[in-house]
Structure to design on (373 residues):
């Protein structure tokens, strides 16, 4: 009987895996991205996202956890240090060219944009148009929060690569990581890395076995099927006590205070290594007042996240971070607030035209930080 039961369980698991495979295939992320209304009249977009998918393989990097492995394509190019290609002016290699670092997450890296049309590339081009010799490096990486950016900067300083200007383009990842884990100031998906470390720790053999079994069980199709059935059943009796969570208002304040700490640390490094710095708080979908059809779909998918994003961004404004920054912090969150046409293809990544608008709002503060008037 045990053998028959085990055989039936295995058959049911395999059958459900096949069903879920074909059902999940209907959720075609490639088609979802390439068909976004912000990409109209962009014949390159399908080829770009094909390269983007091929390039999206992360390698372990000490201290910062990850960076992309080297990749070379038509629209996506990543060097051996995990740094994406940026448009450079003909005089960027000149001895008197400014050394400009741009730090951030995937919006800085340029998800949805070709190499030469990311925010760093657009800013590099605008500097050239203003007659400024500059060498711009895109240190952005998908998922990075501000602390990972800070460590990235410190590693460059340790190597003797001293910038003239550091530009930080932030907001989305610090906010999302806090919402995801109900805690501000840690990288995204930190719980997964804790679990992976514990599973590979040879001094925790009993716990490792338990974690491996739990990890495998959590991925069973039968568990997914059972959970779907349970969720449809009428709820009876008292609900189990929930894990105490930090209220959204307090968590939003924690995000703001954590970012202020990041700004102070950058300021201290700037004083020590003699470079200037400027911070930009980035826009996102939830700051728009009117959505395009695709943007509305995305906003509906992320209703809960949207509420927390608005609270956090409101907290930044209420805290007067910009006014207290002595010109080092600039809030760009509302630059698309009145835009009625499509800007985003998900909750934070935008088409190349949006990158140009962002860079256009950056250029004057950047010139001021470089002491160019």
């Amino acid at each position: 009987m045990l053998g028959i039961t085990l055989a039936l369980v295995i058959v049911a698991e395999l059958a459900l895996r096949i069903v879920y495979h074909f059902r999940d295939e209907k959720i075609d992320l490639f088609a979802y991205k390439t068909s976004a209304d912000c990409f109209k009249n962009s014949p390159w977009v399908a080829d770009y996202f094909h390269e983007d998918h091929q390039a999206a393989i992360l390698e372990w990097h000490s201290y910062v956890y990850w960076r992309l492995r080297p990749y070379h394509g038509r629209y996506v190019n990543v060097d051996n240090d995990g740094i994406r290609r940026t448009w450079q002016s003909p005089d960027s290699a000149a001895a008197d060219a400014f050394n400009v670092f741009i730090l951030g997450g995937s919006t800085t890296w340029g998800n949805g944009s070709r190499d030469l049309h990311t925010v760093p590339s657009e800013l590099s081009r605008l500097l050239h148009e203003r007659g400024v010799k500059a060498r711009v490096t895109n240190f952005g990486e998908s998922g990075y929060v501000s602390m990972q950016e800070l460590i990235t900067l410190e590693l460059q300083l340790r190597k003797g690569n001293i910038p003239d200007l550091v530009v930080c383009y932030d907001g989305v990842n610090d906010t999302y990581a806090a919402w995801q884990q109900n805690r501000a100031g840690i990288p995204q998906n930190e719980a997964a890395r804790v679990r992976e470390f514990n599973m590979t720790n040879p001094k925790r053999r009993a716990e490792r076995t338990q974690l491996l079994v739990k990890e495998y069980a959590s991925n069973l199709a039968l568990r997914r099927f059972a959970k779907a059935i349970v969720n449809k059943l009428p709820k009876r009796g008292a609900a189990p006590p929930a894990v105490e969570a930090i209220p959204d208002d307090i968590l939003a304040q924690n995000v703001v205070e954590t970012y202020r700490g990041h700004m102070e640390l950058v300021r201290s490094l700037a004083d020590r290594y003699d470079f200037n710095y400027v911070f930009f708080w980035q826009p996102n979908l939830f700051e728009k007042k009117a959505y395009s059809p695709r943007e509305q779909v995305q906003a509906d998918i992320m209703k809960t996240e949207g509420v927390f994003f608005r609270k956090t961004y409101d907290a930044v404004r209420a805290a007067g971070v910009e006014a207290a920054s002595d010109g080092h912090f600039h809030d760009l969150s509302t630059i698309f607030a009145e835009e009625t046409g499509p800007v985003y293809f998900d909750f934070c990544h935008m088409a190349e035209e949006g990158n140009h608008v962002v860079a256009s709002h950056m250029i004057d503060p950047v010139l001021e930080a470089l002491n160019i008037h």
In short: Residues 29-187+248-369 form a domain with the Rossmann fold fold (CATH 3.40.50.1110).
